[in-house]
Amino acid sequence: MEACPSGRLPLTVLYEQGTSQDKIVIEMKPEDCASCPFREACPVEKTKKGKYKVEYTPKQRRQEERRREEDTAAFRERYAKRSGLESTNGGLKRKHGLGELRVRGRPAVRHALFLKVAGWNLNRATASGKLTTKVAAILRRLVSFVSPSPAFAENFPSHIIEETSFSIMPLEAIKPWIFPGETNYQAGQQAGR
Q1: C-alpha dihedral (54, 57, 60, 64), degrees to nearest 10
Q2: Mean pLDDT on 157-186
Q3: pTM of full prediction above 0.85
Q4: Are 17 and 34 contained in the same domain?
Q5: Beta-carbon count within 10 A of 57 CB
Q6: 103 occurs within a structural domain
Q7: CA 186 from centroid of its chain's CA atoms
Q8: 9-50 pLDDT, tens per residue?
Q9: Which residue, 1, 36, 35, is CA-closest to 15?
């Protein structure tokens, strides 16, 4: 430290090397600190012997600098992007087990990561509703393509087609409507075709 915020020079600046940690001790002149206009905000404290000192470790100095930087608007703007990505990373670890892969080796790890991120993307698309809308549109096209007959459309459950109450149904529930000749389909299944 060369001078305090009011421009007064310190009496001594000592760098003490300790066994556990180093510290910096700055001593100011008592007459300078007693008449200082910044006395209330100053970290320099009066000791029992009447000296004005401030002590800090290099770690405390670094922490204080980091906290000051975190209070700036530029830091908050940069950090906003990171906070969005951190939620994705946390979700991948929590829901898809990204923190503990069961494979070893670069190709296997890369493949596992690819599949986990693909699963995360499917989860996010399903949650947003966009995927549900797309699947409903595909089912509508499929229904109109497979059987244009009115009898087929009457037997096909309307809730599968509607976007508002759409839910993905198991294939076994849809097969009787996709294959109207239900007996032929079942006979083929039993024969192993």
Answers
A1: 60
A2: 48
A3: no
A4: yes
A5: 15
A6: yes
A7: 49
A8: 888 888 888 777 888 888 888 888 888 888 888 888 888 888
A9: 1
